[in-house]
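Please annotate the following for my students:
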Amino acid sequence: MGYGTDFIKTYEHLISTALHYQVKTFTTQIESLNSRLRHYLTRLHCRTLCYSKSKRMLEISLKLLIHKLNNT
C-alpha cells in the first residue's frame, strides 16, 4: 500500500519513495469524489456564503449525503 499524489515536489520530502506513487489515476478518483461532494453540499464550495462554521454540522451533512447516495 502507498500514497498516490499529483506531481507537486513537496510530496517527495514528506513521503518515502517506497510508498509514493505519482500517478494521475489515483488522483482522478479523489478529485471525482471531491467534485461530487462540492456539487451536493453547498457548504463545501470554495467561494460561497454558505460555508460551514461548525465541524459538527459538516460531519452531519456529510453523513446525510452519504446515506442518501447509498440508498438511491
